[in-house]
Protein 1
Amino acid sequence: MTGLEKIISKIETESKDNCEKIINQAKSQSEEIINKAQSEASAKYSKIISDAKKEAERKIAVAKSSAETITRTKYLEVRNAVVNDIISASYEEIENFDDEKYWKLLLKLCLKNFETGECVMYLNQRDLTRLPADFEDRINSEIYENGAVQVSKKSIDIENGFILDYGDYEINCTLKAVFDDKLEELRDLLSKHLFSSQT
């Protein structure tokens, strides 16, 4: 082999060695880049999945809370409607009492609401026409030690019940006034009685 051939062979060998080194370095670098990219992609994927799960859990919790609120609101609406219906039905039933029950009720109302002194009881026209003859006497026999009630022969514009007029002030004993006065108490009692197991 001539000197020139030796030089060329040496250059080829060195070139080949350098090429292999460069290729090996490139492979190593590319593997590092790929591994790094895969690691970053895996971390991003895990974060995306984790964030998506958290967001889904948050949305489920919000939806559940919203559903519970709606359910609770609807339940209260239905419960109030039931209580109101019972109170309305009770009021109508009392309004439609036969004469005996009606006047017994008015007697009890008068005795419960009567205050010491003398007063005038005012009724509506319908009740004046069906007033029991002994009604005034029955009241006064119960309260004679504390005063007296005189049933007026003049009617007033009320639906039912009566007004006790003491001159300086009046006591409203119409059924509506009595119901309105006891409305919240009635609501509470009915709610506890009907829905105690649900509260």
Note: The helical segments are 3-95, 99-113, 125-129, 135-143, 175-195.
Protein 2
Amino acid sequence: MQLAMWTYEGPPHVGAMRIATAMDGLHYVLHAPQGDTYADLLFTMIERQGKRPPVTYTTFQARDLGSDTAHLFQKAAKDAYKRFKPQAVLVGASCTAELLQDDPGGLAASSDLPVPVVPVELPAYQKRENWGASETLLKLARTFAGPNSDGTSDGKSCNLLGPTALGFRHRDDVVELTNLLAALDIEINVTAPLNATPADLARLPQADFNVVMYPEVASATAQWMQRQFGMPFTTVVPIGVGATREFIGEVARLADVDADHLLSSDLSQLPWYSRSVDSNYLTGKRVFVFADATHAIAAARICTEELGFKLVGLGSYSREFSREVREEAERHGLEALITDDHMEVEEAIEALRPELVLGTQMERHIAKRFGIGCAVISSPVHVQDFPARYSPQMGFEGANVIFDTWVHPLTMGLEEHLLTMFREDFEFGSDQVPSHLASEGETRGEEPPASVSANDVIALSWQSDAEQELKKVPFFVRGKARRNTEKFATEQGLSTITLETLYDAKAHFSR
């Protein structure tokens, strides 16, 4: 076990809380000690919800461990029903309470509650938050969308599966996909779990197919419904212009509708903007991506296929989808970084020296320390990543949002040009970082030479007069000049780069 300041995912019961908090008419009775109620803050402070999550804790204390904690759970379940009158009760244990082995499901069943009781067994020491959300949604679907459900459909309809509370732009993604599908005359039967009730889940089989918005949460449920009811599901996540067009084509085939009018429309500004913007602003910018699997894979494709970036690193903390991330990394000639240790991610960023980092709130802090631009593309996120404005990631409007968000942290070509022209000025000196970066960090946009290791490059030191001379090189070739000089110095066995070394390297590579 490793002690860490940050974690990409919480324990699985937090995933169950995300499902319960997203739904209406469902209450979660959680067997947990007093300290585990911290999870409420994730929703009330980070997502800024106007109400507490529908969770009742048993909140047993140390003195209760010598008595009957099972009785405390039964009392909490009865009190929760009496107070909140839910359509169904979800019961489970936190990672701490799991050690007591009190069997919340059996205890709740013996409490004779007048509503369905759904127990979820979430192994806290083997699984994490997204798995917990996935397992909870599957258990709810299996409970309410049973074989007696009406499987008929009026017209073309689908279910949207996967959006949860505390999800990255999930609410806005639902709006975007609802509008997109409406343009194809496809109705939304049920969106789950967001804003769904247990009664809504009973109507899931009435749709023609399922749209898997976030595979980490919805894949298991969609696969079960395919086996149980013969319902197909989408495999394309519509993040980016290309993926959105592929999604429209996939949905059109599943629903047997004509999508030509939508595919022939220019509904996103991303392609035009990426073609028309200052080429030095985008083309060849070195980007490192680390996020959940869904957003990491989508970001890799947008970077390389739609914005002209150079992908230098790709990784994810979603171990359940590591195969998909590794396959995407191989497409770009990279080895995927699969880890939940933020220190490993920091080491990778330090070694690769990207010009832009696309990641979670952890990567934002890491990039800030290094003076690298960063855009958040995935949970875990901070309160500022729940904007008041409409800000989806999916669909054509989501592609517009992505362009604006990802381009903002970069240094424009004109800005680099001005910094170069006025490098001797006290206000625009070469040691000044672009205005959008909060603190001075390491030099951006300079990769270690391929022939030596990143550690060898970092160990090299530059004398001040050599650094000053390097700054006279035009910005658009300065990175290459530094890399060539460091490569030359390493091959010559030098640990310090002097002015003479810089000139010798220039002569060497000019031959």
Note: The mean pLDDT is 85.
Protein 3
Amino acid sequence: MKIKEHQLGLHFLFILTVLVLLFPLVYALSNSFKTLNDAFNNVFSLIPREFTLQNYIHVFTRLDFMRIVGNTFFISTTVTIFKIITSLLAAYSLVFFNFKGKNTLYFILLSTMFIPFTVTMIPNYLTISSWGLGDSLIGVLIPQLADVLGIFLLRQSMRGIPRSLIEYAQLEGASTYNIITGIVIPLIRPNIISTGILFFVNSWNEYVWPVLILKTKSKFTLSLALQMFISSEGGTDFTIAMAVSVMTMIIPITLYLIFQRYILDTFTTSGVK
């Protein structure tokens, strides 16, 4: 396809934006394979002069890395599953059930999206502490089992499903469970997957809430472990920190590569609608 002259500027801007977004990732990957001296002496070089795996070896020998990855994966997966379930059920109720005050309830829920986390952080912390769940993975999980953003996104997806299709299924004697699993979920599967990935990545990268709850190093998540390592090293041995950063982003990137078709389908469907 031939590029027109007036489109050259847009293409150049797009390429420049991509390079700016990719540079931190490439920089972290490059420095994770450098020695500390090489990293300091060749700050802007993306090709290591002294290629080494010692940074990664140091991470696995210095940190209980697999346990930390397991903690992070457990929290992120559990949070994602519960958020999808609660969002799916709430969205279905708001779209296909008729009850008094439905719109009012929806807008009240929607308004909570604009409440800063710092406002709810202290009440949640006091509640978790009073339940004796401080310094536990369950204490990290409980305040994150529902998400208004998920309700909003899945509700918008379900609004495209013809109500007559749901009514016909009800006339045939299908239960709500069968309708949700047999009709609704297959129709909005790309939206569910893309929303789930959004939840997973947000939980994977979460730092503020886990750092308030978790105190024992064996229960740390990757974000806490990275911060702990940087602090303990005085922030100087950043090549090892880069190795931790690279391993931290491997799973989210892998998830995107696996499910990118569903994510693109979500945007395509939204555009057609």
Note: The mean pLDDT is 86.
Protein 4
Amino acid sequence: MKQLTKLSGLAALAVPFLAALPAMAQDAPTAPYTYTPVVHGGDVAWMSISTILVLLMTVPGLALFYGGLVRTKNMLSVLTQVFAITSVVAIIWVTYGYSLAFTDGGAWNTYVGGFSKVFLSGVDTTTLVATFTNGIYLPEYSFIAFQMTFACITPALIVGAFAERIKFSALLVFVVLWVTFIYFPMAHMVWWWGGPDYLAQEQTAKLIAEAAGDTAAAEAAAANLAANGLIWNWGALDFAGGTVVHINAGIAGLVGCLIVGRRVGYGKENMTPHSLTMTMIGAALLWVGWFGFNAGSNLESNAITALAIVNTFVAAAAAGVAWMFAEWLLRGHPSLLGLVSGVVAGLVAITPAAGFAGPMGSIVLGLIAGVACFFFVAYAKNALKLDDTLDVFGIHCLGGIIGAIATGILVNPALGGAGVPDYLSVPGTLQIAPYDFGFMVTAQIKAVLFTLAFSGIGSAILFYIVKATFGLRVKEEVEREGLDVAEHGERAYNY
């Protein structure tokens, strides 16, 4: 059953904090742990809907959000980039991406998966993956499709940092390299674990072996319990992609905009968004789709799903209000662009905490993220002369960092959080572990710093490789004409 259960992904209720808990006195079980996998039709339906919602976030949501923010001459290029990335990565995902992210990597298992599921080998309509409840499973195809949407949207987020000046061919090459060497390993390190039944099975085997004095068997079971991704074993929480998606993409975007360089005329020419109407439509689609992104990450349709929906709603609203009033106070007017930017910042911040925080904690998180991201985008970015075209770093990376660290605080039941799950103290059941502020916050900070270093350095290497082989940037005359006609031979608008 190990191969059946060693497929689960999103850390909605599965927390490696358990590995750091002091050993608890337990009576040795008298028999090995057994279970019968059950698939609930309601869970399958919810995951199917969530998958479609996350695709909606990307196309058309992200494409329109980004497209409206660039100049008219580059609208079509952004739409094409996001659509093409989604299509290319979807094929890569089922070819080898799923295998690298969600299979046992053998000697490299701490960092990346293996090739046992290349071309979806061994996957059919009978294979299952674990959820976060003992005995409850999903069809493997449901999990593959849901995770595919995450793999598609993450590199698409990056393009906003250097929009209006990158070669389409270079972007596609970079994306293929980036998902292979950055995204798939990050997903594995954060979300790869055994599943609740696998943990119960190995913990029971360990206790039986210890009671019988069988040291070798006890050590083997302990090794199996620790056969998880690096960041999972650190105890870091990431409900739906604060590290894997937003910090990962945000820091890659920052590196990219620095290496590609500023746009021609930056700081001298008018580069205001050409259609805030399109941007608002895109932001609205992002907000709607984000319910699938966050609540779908629970892999089941239950109370935690409902909690994630409420948190996604109120955190985004709070961040939008915070950005709006901060801008109103400091700049004299509340703008639509500020309001929708704040909502997206709140969605980013709540992503890692959606199933862990309580609603009131989520509101506070949204307020903080909205104000912090506003100050960076409105003031720090200009002071640094950073040409992050669509504020990928200022919203996704910064918002992701705030949310990731706050998750370690807001999970505390004393603050209305859901608590840290414990699958080991009573194998086969879900308990709530004692909350340790120092451990949880430290684990979250470690995860953030690792993601910044791994993705930042790795992305820089990949950008320089592409720059040396293909060139990253279009010629100045192409940039002035606009990428729509020069790169794609089309215009977004024909009047």
Note: The chain has one domain: 2-13+37-193+228-483.
